[in-house]
Amino acid sequence: MKKYRNVLIAGLVLVLYSSGLMAQGDIITAAEFMKMFKTNKNMIVIDASKADSYKKTHVKGAVNIPHKSLYKDSEIEGLINDPAKLAAQFGAKGVSETKTIVVYDGGSQKYSSRVYWILKYLGAPDVKLLHKDMDSWRKARVPITKMPTKVVKATFTPKVNSNIIADIDFVKSGKAILIDARTAEEFNGTSDKSVGHIPGAVNINYKEVLTDKDSFKNKAEMEKFVAKYQLSADKPIVVYCNTGIIATVIYASLKNIMGWNNVKIYDGAYKEWEGKGNKFANKAGVVTSKKAKSSPSGGGC
Asked: Could you check whether 22-160 and 163-288 share the same CATH topology?
């Protein structure tokens, strides 16, 4: 009887894992979040959505840190602030590297993944990503409110993890598999947002690591994904997009679902490559340095 019960439990665990209902690395479900919400007194929640969205509704107790508030005022769009300034920004919102930090967004995984990656870059050891799926949130009874959270300032001491960021020189070195996480049109240079891609890059749309409901794919699905593109943990991988946002979705998936530690984000991305006068390849195989039209939305990132 005991043996039968153990087999049954093992089978149930397997079913839950394969269906994506259990935590995978730092990616947690609404039910798991609620367990932490009720018991972890050292937890802080970040809503990475725009301020307008936060004002309409957010998790009770969450602080609002829109991803765009973490960028430099620079000619190159989307570059993150220096570590000291980032640490001050997070601290001003009550976020400390000593806390359990849970990040979510409006449901796209783009902005939460971006803030997640920035926190991991700053060396925060305990950061979680929460899917926003209103059906699962209702079932788990995640508390929602319109009331702004009273912020209690904290001290954030950064310990920069340079292993997860790539600069333009590393991209040029050819030491890594280079993934362009944008649309095929942007990659090919047939979009008015882009004249092409960084030479040598392969195009893998970031949505390929998400389900049709924009949740992260589970381990079995991701194993098929990495096999399709012949990716492995044996060689460094650098992911970029237009401004470093959607690239972080692929980072979060490979890091947490696959458990790979060799994935970097090229934070300068397309915009820096273009801004510094580097050449692009496009569908016709032509290398060009002609500028694309600017886009207020970050060109899909």
From this structure: yes
